[in-house]
Amino acid sequence: MQYWEEMNNKYGFGDGSAYPAGVELYRDVYVKTVNKLAENRNSNLRIVPFDRGGVHNYCLWMVVPKDWFETVYLPKQKPGEQWSGVDFSELPDPNAPEPQPDEELEAAIEDAMGMDLDSFVEVNPKLAEGFEKFLGEM
Description:
By secondary structure, the protein is an alpha+beta fold. It has helices at residues 12-16, 23-40, 66-73, 103-113, 131-136; strands at residues 45-51, 59-65. Strands 1-2 form a two-stranded antiparallel ribbon. Strand 1 and strand 2 form a beta hairpin.
C-alpha cells in the first residue's frame, strides 16, 4: 500500500500538489480491503474515504464507528462502484474527535499492508488530444 501513509496526513502528496494518477482508485482498494479485514476480525470501527476540503491534501481516509458506517455510509454506496468520499458535514458528530483504531482495526491494517493491493489498480496514460496540432504549429 504505497500511498497509505500519504492518505493519513493532510500534508501528504506534497501537501496536495503531487497526486499520483489513480489516487482515488488506490484509496478505494485500500479502504474496501481494510474494512473487509476489520469485519472478519470483529472490529467496532471501519474506515471511509475522506475528502478534506480546503488547502492541503484532500485524498484521505478516516476511522468511523462501525454502526454509522453500516447504517449511514454503506447504504449510500452502489455495489461494484468506487466508494464516495465523505466530508465533515456527513460525519456522525463533526465536532467529535476521530476514533482511534482499536486492536482489531490495527491488525486489519497490518494484514492489508502485507498484501499487494496496488497491483489491483491499473493506470493507463494516453496522449492528450491536440498534441499533433501543437507540433504542427511549432
